[in-house]
Amino acid sequence: MNSVISVSDFYFNYLRSDLVLKNVNIEIEKGSFTVIIGPSGAGKTTLCKALTGIVPFYSGGDYAGEIKVLGESTKGKKVSDLAMKVGLMLEDYESQLVSLTAGEEVAFSLLNHGFPPEEAEERTRLALEDVGLPGRESYQLDELSGGQRQRLALASLLAVHPEIIVLDEPVSAMDPDGGESLYKLLDKIHKEHGTTFIVVEHRLEFVLPYMTDLIAVKNGEIMAQGHCEDVVSHIYEDKELRPLLPDLWQIKCNLEKGTAQKFSLWRSADEAVKELQSKGFGRGVRA
Q1: CA distance 225 to 217
Q2: Which residues form the ABC transporter domain (predicted)?
């Protein structure tokens, strides 16, 4: 496996708290679109912060084990140094916006990293185009809608050209159209730039067509990880994790248990209907 992130025997607790992450061992494959699921309070956000060095080296706390990003340990690294390799957008993305205009927002991190002004300007222009905000450099942040500000936060990450982007519930405050639009954008970036994505998501229906790998977290521990095809049935057997799977995958697993047949990992209702009909399950089944 060509891993871009490797987590080995990692434990963590915030100061004066119980363990949040326990014996975490995961590998994130280069170019994958990995989704992290788990109940509320499972440790998903803390895991995201650990992958970017915020935990424990900025937030504080006690830890054991090691995390490597692109072959280098995060220990002793500045968060700003790691940001050149792995970008993070938190669920509260508004807290990451620090400038008055869209152009200044994207250029801020570039200039802090020492890019010359001319290159920062060009990278800003291209990043805004990539997220569907062309020519918005002079727009005040309060002139942008919530969805546009979220795209702006993503543009700030893309401008640095990190190989890995970590997103914590990026569509939690969006309506269905906004959620579908954002994930189509992420898929476009994933395919065009080969960026490795790691996404915490509760609403898996939005990411269903795009995800390649799945990590399930419960009580700070990794319950399953790997390619979706290899781990979905295992996650289904856990009654607490089962409701987190998309409805299509729950139906698939239930049918497999009841019929002793194997079905493909459906990515859409149309795909499910086509296979069910081909196997003689109700000729009248429709999407």
Answers
A1: 9
A2: 5-244
Residue 39 lies in a domain: yes
**73 and 156 inside one domain:** yes
Q: What is the pLDDT of residues 7-54, one digit of tens each?
A: 999 999 999 889 999 999 999 999 999 999 999 999 999 999 999 999
Q: Do 142 and 251 share a domain, yes or no? A: no
Residue pair 63/54 in contact (Cβ under 8 Å)? The answer is no
For residue 56, say if its preceding peptide bond is cis, omega within 30 degrees of 0: yes
242: how many CB neighbours lie within 10 A of its CB? 14
The token pair that represents 62 in the structure block? 């006690």
239 assigned to some structural domain = no
Domain of 276, in residue numbers:
246-286
Residues 176, 254 within the same domain: no
Query: What is the Cα–Cα distance from 89 to 278, expressed in whole angstroms?
Result: 42
pLDDT grade, residue 94 (50/70/90)? Answer: confident
Q: Is the same domain home to 227 and 250?
A: no
Q: Establish how many alpha carbons lie within 13 A of residue 76's alpha carbon, considering only the half-sphere containing its beta carbon.
A: 2
Question: What is the number of structural domains in the chain?
Answer: 2
Among the listed ranges 172-186, 222-236, 257-271, which one has the minimum average pLDDT value? Answer: 172-186
- Distance, CA of 23 to CA of 13 (rounded, Å): 12
